[in-house]
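Task: encode each sequence below as structure tokens.

Item 1
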Amino acid sequence: MSDLLRELSKVTNIAKELADVLFPFRDAVPESSIIVTDIAATVFLIEKSLKKFSDLCYDPQYGAVDKRLHEEIRTIVTHSFRSVKELDRIYHQCISRRGTPVSLRSHKKILGDILTVFEDWSGSNILIWLRRDLNNLENLVSYIGLKLNKPPKNATCDPENLLRKIRSQAYDLEREAQGSPPRGCGPTRPPLVRTGSVLPPPVNPYPSPPASFQYGSAPMRPYSTPGRSAYHPPPPLPPPPYKNHYGHPPPQMPINQHQIPRYDPNQLTPPISPVTPTNITPVMLGNPGSPHRVPAPRRYSQTPAPDRSQWGMSTPPGTPPMEPRTTRHIGVGRTSSAVKGRREWFAQVFDNNRPNVRGSFGETMQVPTCFGAHMDDLGLAPDDIEVFRVGADNDLTLRMFRNDRTSAVRVVCTTGGAGGSWTGASEPGVKHQSAIDATSLSVERVGGAIRLSTPRYLWAVINFADYASLTLFFHAFLGLRHRAPNAPLPVSSESCHNEEEEFLFAAKITGDFDNGREQNLRMLKDKTSGELRIDAAFVSQYDEVTVWTAFITEQITEHGWIKKLSRRRIVLHNVRQFSFDDDFETKMVPKLMIKFKNEEDVVPFMKMIEKQRDLRMDLMRKKEGQRRSPTAPPPGQRSSRYFP
């Protein structure tokens, strides 16, 4: 224990010095100020968490907690030590090689070296890596503080939920230390072994633009570092062999092997020049880097582009949303056999019968973007059914597909186009399209936006205008992914209770659902919009799946909305219940019966409802008073109402 405390004091000082030396880069490199601020602030918060953990270690009762979570504490704290010390080593290595930065160019080079070298070492983005360490430390400090009766500020989560998160996070770190792939990603594909002549690696004929520097992705440096030669793209692959109308190659003719030109790996080609409107030429079939077949005809007719004015989007698509309701919610393209004969639940959410939820996130700086690599053909199978799609600013559309036969889930992100259903091939007007298996993504809420990330990079960002649509998409994504084959275990950011929501109440309920399996009933309040919701979830040792949710902000103000029937039963009237089971059904329940496992949980639940109702009524009276109050006359001007 003494060795851990000595190392803890040493790493805490290193983290403090790192935060101090990284903050000046924010002013020296203005175009990178966002990512520099995020990195420095994360390191600063890590230093604060380590200091809190050090204070808790000196508590006399800490030995009982350490005995229960000895291995998990060692794993999480040691991993954060390793990250901070490695970042400190990389920083001093770059400073010793390039010297103390004095100009804008030197600051840019050192910052680019730090981001690149750290990503090469960790295999992940520096910000994602540090935020994971910070999240692990905060959960650990919160759990130990609750056990020692020293809860930190804003610690609203129950200890058992924190314990599950800590063990799950320690398990992930142990797998990475042993060289195993992250859960949910599956085994990596073995490298392709080429035989015969040496061929250059394949080149994507439609390269995607580099990831935006705003969202934490390492920038592409326009310079070459010492010891590294400038990058030159390899020559394109030769066109495939000609095939006749029936798909069979023509008979082979004897060819003199000495006439075949050999590929010289030392021969470098000039860099690719940027494409401008003056040098664009039509792409012919069969040329290197061009399609080798005519695109297949559409399986479905192209739907016209929706009128953007009807969604209140008066700003250009490339600017951040400035008005509420900037997210488009488009109906589904095809209907699954499991829900044949009716509309999908997600489409019903945003029609005239949508819940009366007015909580808006207002202006947001999250610009919808897809960072996935461009794909000419998305490879959708005939059994892949589009469950729902969500449109956003920047002409971006996100679609969720589920395979009826295998239950596999794929996420498709497109930019441009008419927004209709298609076969998966590139369509006219589509500027960028990418697809990925949902089990390879983790979902995280950041303010009014959803971030979909792989273990190595940020894949897509999509913003939402209100709390209801964001919550439904968040849990619908988790519900679809949970039922997919090889589904990963949820990470800490995918919990039913996250940092963006205030945890108000939790209790166990029972019933006739799922063979009498218990559910956790929760009451949550959004910190941004103030909206209330209740949900039920199945919680196991390493898993947490939301079964249904209901938004109750407006209902709690109605007289007689909640009623106690017995010692363990209550009834809620007129509740619109959004279910995340296999059918994804939404329905209006006139009387929702809830049976608590313990009768002592009924009264606290009703008192919490009464407390939130009083807060809601006070807010409504305040707004009504402001609306009816007469406006004062301007200075120096008399009103005829009070003066003759």
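Item 2
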Amino acid sequence: MDISITFDYPEATYTNGEVVSGKVILFCPSTITLSKIAVNLIGETKSILSGAPGLLTRRKIDEFHRIFPVSFVTEKSKSESIKLQFGYHSFPFALKIPWLPKCESCPPKTSVSRILDDKETQLGPPELPPSMKEPRKGAEVIYRVHIAVTILRNMFKSTFRKHAEISVWPLDTRPVSIGSMCSGDFSSFSTVEATIMGSSANSLSPTGTGDDLLLLPSTTGTSKVRIAARFPSEFSLTCARDISMRIDIEKLDGHESDLYLQSFQALLVGYTDVRVGTTTQVQMAFWMVQSLSNLGLKVFSSDDEEGTVNEIDPALWRDKPLHGSVVPSFQSCNLERRYELELLLGFQCNSPKARILFVQLRTPVRVFSGITPGRRLSVDCRYPYDARSMSEKGCSSTGPTATNGFGHEASSLVSGQSMEFSRASMLPSPYPPTYEEATIASVNDGLQREYGLGKSCW
């Protein structure tokens, strides 16, 4: 027997409260007796520490996140088992992603796991960690749909298993209005002050000897400035989007000189904290957002007065979205992902012969998924990796119909508005049902009356 899994939205990135729907397709090479089909949604984190003090050369610890919607389990007594003939047979399923994870490093329903849950409740609700595969850095977060099909063979039970991975990111908890904010309304800011030296009045002679008098170079003047980088609330950035940032430069003295911006660099630094027991290891990753040189942009002229504030042209970092491998910030169980944004600006004072002074501004930032509440999934939605195109055209709630194992079309299992989902039954076929279809429909009706399930919840 062959088992396959198809999803209604195979390219989607799911989030809190959404429903993962699809079909379990069985191929029977001969007549079999079906006893049970169990579909579970499992989240798993895997942490690896290598070479840490007090540990072995390689230590591997798995931690499971049990995510419990009502798992689809179809189980009846032997007298009510289903006979499946030769061919393909499909069974729909729908699993809801919970709002909060449940971190368990020990088997569930044990005293140890309950103590861990109580401790986490006191520290605050954990965040749903995003799907992440970084085996070289010792951290993996994997979500998968696990299928177990049990059949009867001469009074013995045989179980066949299959799983398929899905992508899950946490919901964006920021106000929806934050996406339409003007740069002047950004409330979070980080500042740094710097003194830009002018050109040298004295220089060393290239033909000088060791007996010559050594003259230290001096500058004709300096310019003091304050650089402020402003961000939306909580220093927030959005995955796969341009950086929402405003950079202001304020003149702090009355020095009469021109000030030029010669270089600009924006670097995103990611930290992954992996904790195993009392040992924590930090792994770093870097993403270059923008790097420009030889700009020659005038920031201040000699006529500008003290206290003048000018804004750097945001076109320097426009159309430079965050890399697709950047996942949202989170802190859950034994993993934490945090970020810092490093800005490196090169200034030049007075003339092209002046020195270039590099000013570094580094600030912690928080990266959000950009998945807003109430969105509607569709087959074409590949959010968040195509974030800008999806924000323009939106995600439609309807898409092409799927095909079940019998060759008939079935409507989408997920529909509705504002995170509310309903299950639809299969569309009527213009042909009379086969024996297998009629048998499955009869069993579905029985389960619906006994357990109160929808028609598609086999």
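Check on item 2: The first strand starts at residue 2 and ends at 7. The domain at 176-202+216-368 is CATH 2.60.40 (Immunoglobulin-like).
End of task.
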